[in-house]
Amino acid sequence: MDDWFKKCFLKDMIVLGIESSCDETAASVVTDKREILSNVILSQIEEHKIFGGVVPEIAARAHLEYIDNVVETAVKKAGISFADIDAVAGASGPGLIGGVLVGVMTSKAIASVLNKPYIAVNHLEGHALTARLTGDVEFPYLLLLVSGGHCQLLAVEGVGKYRQLGATIDDAAGEAFDKVAKMLKAGYPGGQSVEKLAINGDPKRFSFPRPLKNREGCDFSFSGLKTSVRRKIESMSDEPLASIVLNEQDKADFCASFQEAVCDTLIGRVKNAIKMFKESFPTGKTIVVAGGVAANTKLRESLVRLAEKENMEFAAPPLKLCTDNAAMIAWAGLERYRLGLVDGLDFKPRPRWALDPDAKGKK
Ligand code: KG4
Ligand code: ZN
Questions:
Q1: Is any atom of ligand 1 closer than 6 Å to the C-beta of 291?
Q2: Could you say which of 73, 248, 325, 351 has the lowest number of CB atoms within 10 Å?
């Protein structure tokens, strides 16, 4: 009986996942029974905070320093030994190449020593498949992928099979949150800070544009919205933007009004995507949201309402699996491993790596 057959039918498959493509050094152990045995995430927030954004070289050095410890902790917390691991999945792009290289080299080294397969996971596929780790979501489904680097609508037909329906022509949704947070001196990281401040804000105080509203298709644009927020902040004072410090209520109102504009914009585009998705995949019944911005409660609530109206089901990973983590990498690796999709140790890390190879140019 070969090893693969035994794993499939007799014993849990166990995959170690490693994530290091941005500013989280993470490792996780996941089984094919959808158990997350460990999920260790070392955030580099403190390292990048003073710069108001991720500094790639600092991130790469920090990954290098922490990764061995993070992996060892994940294996220990999972209550297994390295010998129990069936495959090693490493986020192998897209992302900041210095960090990606650290994760790829670590994953390959462990796979090679254990004589087990290495699986090169697309970080975006990690986000895209998380809802299948945490819930019963069947292919095909419609995915809104909203993170710091990407904003896309995709039909997910299967593992490794994505059709991009729309994407951003400028900033990603998370990027817009981060930039607006910086303008408002709202705190870092941006998305969570804006959401927190928005709780006490008036979403109707400032009227911001809803880019591409009522236009065909489901591409996104956020740069006009961002500029509109900047102009409004500048109109509140004679000082240059960098010196303007708003009072807490003004800040909260800005955050609430901006968050509402982003949610309205995303929902408008998802509505169009649902039409496109239903035409091509009449059996598809689920809308999934993933990526860091999927942790936003207002967005999740708006999507629940939209799904109800459209007679569709809605699925989203729990908040801590929306932002970057290695459980999603381990799970995507496991889904690939089950299909025999493993990679050679000569796999070259990919700083750019689209889920749909036919969709180029947008992010
Ligand atoms: O997926 P992720 O952790 O990293 C990337 O792959 O980019 O996403 C990070 C992004 C950041 O832009 C962050 O500001 C945003 O997700 N984010 C949020 C929230 N939590 C994280 N945006 C809005 N509301 C949140 N609660
Ligand atoms: Zn991500």
A1: yes
A2: 248
| Dist CA 151 CA 170 (whole Å) | 10
Residue 174 has what pLDDT?
97
Distance 174 CA to ligand 1 centre (A): 5
Fold of 2-129+322-338: Nucleotidyltransferase; domain 5 (3.30.420)
Domain 138-317 has CATH 3.40.640.10: no
Cis (ω within 30 of 0) for the bond into 349? no
The predicted pLDDT at position 45 comes to 87
Pick out the chain residues at pLDDT < 50: none
pTM over 0.90: yes
Tell me the pLDDT tens digit for each residue of 222-250.
999 999 999 999 999 999 999 999 999 99
| pLDDT in the model for residue 362 | 77
| Residue list, CB under 5 A from ion ligand 2 | 147, 324
* Contact in structure between 21 and 103 (CB atoms under 8 Å): yes
CB 201 less than 6 A from any atom of ligand 1: no
Distance in angstroms (rounded) separating the CA atoms of residues 117 and 289: 30
Among protein residues, the one whose CA lies closest to atom 7 of ligand 1: 148
Give the bridge partners for 144, in sequence order. 153, 289
Is the C-beta atom of 178 inside 6 A of ligand 1?
yes
Indicate the domain borders of the chain. Answer: 2-129+322-338, 138-317
283: CB partners within 8 A, 6+ apart = 140
Please indicate whether residue 219, judged by its CB atom, sits closer than 6 Å to ligand 1.
no
pLDDT tens digits along 118-155: 999 999 999 999 999 999 999 999 999 999 999 999 99
The pLDDT value given to residue 25: 97
Rounded-to-integer distance, Cα 260 and Cα 210, Å: 9
The finding on whether 293 has its CB within 6 A of some atom of ligand 1 is yes
